[in-house]
Each structure stands twice: as structure tokens, then as C-alpha cells.
Amino acid sequence: MLSPTEEAPATASLHYALGEDFAEYIWRGEFSVPPFTRMSIFDSPAVNFHVDDDLDYVYVPTVLSLFNHVGAGIRLVQQRIEDDRKELVKPTSSLLARFPKDGIIYPEIETLGASTDLEALKAHIATGTDNDQRITDLQMTVAALQSNSLSVTFTGLQRQQRVLKQATTIQQLLAGLDGRSFNASLTKLADLRTDQEAFRTAFFSEADLPSEPDDSWEEFIARGADYQTHLAAEEAHDDSRCLYCRQPLDENARALVSKYSVFLLDKIGQDIKAEQSSITKFGRLLSGVQADELRAYVKEYDAQEDKPEFFGRLESIESALTHCEQAITTSSLIDVALLAEMDSIAGLLAADVTATDSAAATIEQQMANRETTTREKKKELQDLQIGVELAKSWIEIEGAVRRAKEADKLGSLMKRIPPVLRGVTELAKFASDQLVNESFDALFIEECEALRAPILKVEFIGRQGKAQRRKVLTSKHRPPKVLSEGEQKVLAMADFLAEARLSGISAPVIFDDPVSSLDHRRIDEVADRVARLAEQTQVIVFTHDVLFAAALISRFEKTKRCRFYQITDEGGKGKVTPASGPRWDSISELAKKVNVTIETARKAEGDARDALVRTGYGWLRSWCEVFTEMELLKGVTQRYQPNVRMTTLSDINIEQLPAAIETVTRLFEDACRYIDSHSQPLPALGVTPTLADLERDWAELKAVRQNYAALTAQ
User: Are residues 283 and 319 in the same domain?
Assistant: First the structure.
């Protein structure tokens, strides 16, 4: 059972003769099944192949095939040499991995080849007997030199340098601060604020303020004064209105505003601003101080027992800095003794910086000397290890160089093969000209003349010992660029037939729609050529062209060596059924159908007989058409024939023609009234022909034919 989407597999049972043997093959969709591969096939896709491509010959004489064998043998030798050469020069990646990339001989190992100087390479081999012990000693020496004790010490000294540099900067800043001036400004500012508060309270005691005049209230007044200044600059100030609500001011309000102005212009307020400015300037000196390294260092060593000699001085500087920052933040007095101490430690701090710089320079020099020694020992160790490994790998290295030299010899041999192949090709081309090309050229010209194909030049070329042919019109134009589609098709057919004849046709030849794209003037030429070919071998033609099919059938009217098969969709697509031709009925065939219909009707009754009678009149009508075409008019004009046969015009019996025409025309019209394919008027639909009517009319037509034939023969 197959689902609706599945298709039945393609199968066929093929009966064929191979020589004198008959066989059957069950085909299930396979490709290239012998001996069917011996059949020659021409179809539309083969046109470009035969016209535009450089073609090999399907048939090659035995002598020429030897050239192919020689060429193939030489190419096999060439491939064998190339394979051996590639195998010889295959890179030895395992050998390369044994040596360090920065080693002295790595480039030579990497480019190991026929030109490698083995003697120079051999000089690097370690020849001592105690190589393993020397390697162990050098490894221990390098490990000791690579220890990071000096590096750790140098890193610590570098940190001390940064800390002392930062401490020196802070010490110089603190030593330059005037602590007494800061304390005086701070004390004076406190006194001024006390005096200002007493003045403010007494001055606005009668102003009926909601609360005591404090700093927030004072800021409110100051912002109002700024706003008034802004309005005055914009020429929008009105002394008679409130700055904020814009309501008119009475006398009391104007008096209060005047007191505000007096308060803002008070001398005490000006002094307070001056002292605040002095204190702020003092604080800015400390705001940009960088003390992160100093503080981290002091914090780290504060909890340790083993402290640097200069730790006390660093601690004093950090404490003095912290004290000054807190004094500025909390507005408290500075301990001037701490600042005075900064002058006393300046000299000691400078000595600490000098000592640390000297120690760091000494350690750095020691590290530089150690790096040089380490590099020298590491190189000595690497060279020794390379020498030992080179001794172990020497046999393999010698083998690689030997193989490279052999590969070079094979490469030289490879260069000699292409000229030999070209010589074989030239010799094969010469032999092809003598044995194949000249014969093909003559056959091709003959086929072109038979098919009225364009005459063009055939160039015979040879590549790799093979004979090939190419069709050209001029040196610059290939046939597809100039010729029409029909001309290309007959040209391709001429090439196809010439090659088939060259090898001797021993199997069926198949043409698939050979006249598509051809005008009808060429159909007879193709039909004649196919008919002549059919005299020598079996020919199978697939075509959609009815005229071409009729033309082919007409070529075999005498020999009858032609079978016609019609492909229909009845009962499934592609059903093949035998037929006499493309709807080409003969008088004898139609007469047989009329007689069979009458015999069948005699055995039937009722509606079945009526239906058979109408069918009989249909065959009777067709018989009248064919009788008129083939016997009354002697086939002067026939369906599917493009020409008028004037040679048979004189055979028409003009004297007997009127009587025959009268009878045939009358019975033809009667038949047209009875068949279903012709619509009838309503009164005629009720008139049903009988079997007796059919027998009578058929007898009358046969009598007309007999009389006409007898009188014509006299």
C-alpha cells in the first residue's frame, strides 16, 4: 500500500537481443547498465555538447588507445614520484619540538633540508662525559640567581623612598604654617561673633521678630540684599514695595528695612568676614596634601616591634598633620609646639632620604649584576642541553637530510616528465589525424550536406594524448555566437551521426525530439536521414511533432519496417499503446470497425443497440472522409502531408466523380445527423436510426466504392 504522497517505483521489463542471444532485464531505476550503454542518444541537451565543447571521441582505434595507456602510465609514474617526494619531505614536527625556539640551532633544525651543513651542525654536539652532572649544577646555580631576595629588598626601599618623599613635602608645609596667626584669628573671630550677637539682639529688640535673630535670620537678610542689588541692576527695584510679596510698605516696615541695611553695613560683620577669610586660607594650604603613603606606612609599622630608625620622625609628621586638619575642621586652636618640632626634624629627615636613596642604588646595581650573570648561566645551560639533545637526535637528523636530498633528486626527475608527456600528446595527435580526424572530417561534411547544415571548420586538437575536435566559424567566433538555434541543432546532429558512423553503429540509435527548433523545410531532410539510418540499424524516435511523425511513417509505406506507439495519459501518465499512426486512419481499418460495430449491434437489444448504431454512423462518417481523400481524389492532398501530390492528379476519374460525390455527400450528411458530436434540431432528436438503416447505408457506400474502382480501372 502506498500513501497518497508516495509514488510507485519506476520499473520495466526489457527484452533485447545481443548478437544472436535473447535476454530480459528487469530495470528498477539503475543508471549506466550495460549493454544499454552502447546505444547512441541524441537529445536537446546534447546540442551544446556537440557544437560548443571540445569533444573526445567515443570510439578510439586500438592503436590510439595505446597512447592513452602510455600517457596514463607516465602520469601514474609522475604521481608515484610526487607521492614519494611528499613523503620524504614530510616535516618532522617531533624533532623540532625537542629544541627551544630561542636556541642557537633552532633555525637550522626548522629548515632542515638537502642544503643543511651537517658538519657545522655537528660542532654543537656536547662531547663531555659528565654532561648530566654539569646540567644539574647549572640548574642549581640558575635557580639560586633567580631567587627574589634582592628584588624584595629593592621593592621595600622603593616604598621607603616614596614615603620619605611624601613626609618631606608635608614637613616643609607644616614648618611654614603660622600657627600663632591661626590661633589669633580663631580667638578674634569668637569675640567678634559674641559682640555681633549682642548688637543684633539689642538692635532688633523692637522689631517684633518671630524669634531671636540668629545665623539663619542673618542669612535671610543677606539674600534679600543680594536680590535688591539684582533688581536695581535691572532697573526694576521699588523702595516702596516688599522685595518678595510686592505689597506696599508702611512707615514701620520701611524703618525695619533701613535697620537691615544698617546691620549689613555694620563694622563687626566686616571684621568677621576678614577673619573667616584668613582661617579659610590656612585650611586651603592643607586641603591638597597627599599623605596616603605616609599614613599607610605609619599604620603598618605602628603595631610592629621592629621599626625603622626614622619611624619616630614619620609618626611626628603624621600626628602634626592630623592635629592641624582636626583643628581646622573643629575650629580649635593649633598646638604650635607640634609645628615648631617640624623645624627640628628637617635635617634628620633629609639624612634619612639620602641614606635610603643610597641603599636603593646599591641594591639596584647588585640586581643588574645578578641579571647579567643569570643570563650567562642560563645560556650556558641551554647550549649544554641543546648539545646533549643534538647528540641523541643525530641519527634522525642525518636521516632527514638524506631524505631531503633524495626528494631533490626526485624533484629533478619530475621536471623531465612534462616534456615526455607533451611528446606523447604530439605523437598521439599526429596518429589521430591519420587514423581518426581525417575520416571524421569526411563523414562530418557528408552529414552536413545531407542535413543542409552550415559548413564550418573543424579543428582537431590533442591534449594529454587524447584526440579532440572543435568547431569554429572564425578565429574569434564560436558557432553558438552566430548560428540560429535550428542551425545549431542540425549541426549537432551531423556531428553525432558522423561520430556514430566512425565507430560503426552496433546498437540502437535514439533521437529525442530531433526537429524541435527546426523550421518545416528541414523536417523532410531529417526524416530522410533518419529513414536511411534505419535501413542499417534500429532507430527509436521520440517526437511531439505530428508532421515529422507522418513524414517518417510515409518513408516506410512500402517496406512497412516502422512501428508507431502513441503515449497517452489514459490510465496513468505515460501509457504507451501501439497505433497505426498519428490519427492516420485507412479505409480498410475503418471498414473493419464498421463491420465489427454492425455485428455487435445485431447481438444487442434496446438502448445498447441504438448506441452501437450511432457509433457505427460515426465510423461511417470517418470512412467517407478517408474514401474521398485517398480514392476519389487519389491522395492528391492528405492530412499531415505538407505537399500536394501532383503526380496522382491525373488518376482521378472525372467522369465517375459526380455520381460518387452525390452518394457519399448524401450519406455523410445523414451520418452527421446521427452522431453525438453534432447538435441536432429538436424535431430530429426524436428520429433514431435503426440497424437496418445502418446496414443499408453501409452497403450503398461499399457499392459506390466498388463501382468507382471498377470503372476507374478500365
Answer: no
Set of cell numbers at residue 361: 642604588
Nearest CA to 286 out of 454, 428, 174, 398 is that of 174
CA 38 to chain CA centroid, Å, is: 41
Other CB atoms within 10 A of residue 176 CB: 11
Is 48 a member of any domain? no
Q: Taking the C-alpha atoms of 624, 626, 631 and 636 in order, what is their torsion angle to the nearest 10 degrees?
A: 130
Q: What is the pLDDT of residues 50-81, one digit of tens each?
A: 777 666 666 666 666 777 788 888 888 888 88
640: helix, coil or strand? coil
User: Do 594 and 709 belong together in one domain?
Assistant: yes
> Parallel, antiparallel, or unpaired: how do β-strands 509-512 and 40-42 relate?
parallel
Residue 258's domain comprises 179-288
Largest CA distance in the chain: 170
Chain centroid to CA 435 = 49
Last residue of a domain, one of 392, 409, 433: 392
Same domain, 672 and 605: yes
Q: What is the DSSP letter of 453?
A: P
Q: What is the mean pLDDT of residues 78-104?
A: 78
Helices (H), 265-345: 267-287, 292-302, 311-330, 336-344
* Shared domain check, 358 and 270: no
Angle between helices 336-344 and 311-330 (to 10 degrees): 150
Does residue 414 belong to any structural domain of this protein? no
- Quick: pLDDT tens for 312-351: 888 888 888 787 777 777 777 777 787 778 888 888 888 8
- Shared domain for 170 and 183, answered yes or no, is no
- Looking at the fold, whether 305 and 384 belong to one and the same domain comes out as yes
Cα dihedral 299, 302, 307, 308 sign: positive
Going through 246-336 in order, the beta strands assigned E by DSSP cover none
Q: Do residues 522 and 490 make contact, with C-beta atoms less than 8 angstroms apart?
A: yes
C-alpha cell at position 699: 452497403
Contact 670, 653 (CB under 8 A): no
CA atoms of 588 and 572, how far apart (whole Å):
31
Of the pLDDT bands very low, low, confident and very high (cuts 50, 70, 90), residue 265 is very low
**Ranges 8-12, 94-98, 147-151, 440-444: which has the least confidence:** 147-151
Whether residue 310 is found in the same domain as residue 278: no
pTM of this prediction exceeds 0.90: no
- If one counts the domains in the chain, the total is 3
183 and 271 housed in the same domain = yes
Q: Is 11 exposed, middle or buried (0-12, 13-18, 19+ CB in 10 A)?
A: exposed
The candidate with the shortest Cα–Cα distance to 536, out of 511, 493, 504, 492, is 504
Per-residue pLDDT at 207 exceeds 60: no
Kindly report the number of other CB atoms within 10 A of residue 196's CB atom: 19
Q: How far apart are CA 203 and CA 185, in angstroms?
A: 26
User: pLDDT tens-digit profile of 382-417?
Assistant: 887 888 877 887 877 777 788 878 888 888 888 888
Q: Are 672 and 689 in contact (CB under 8 A)?
A: no
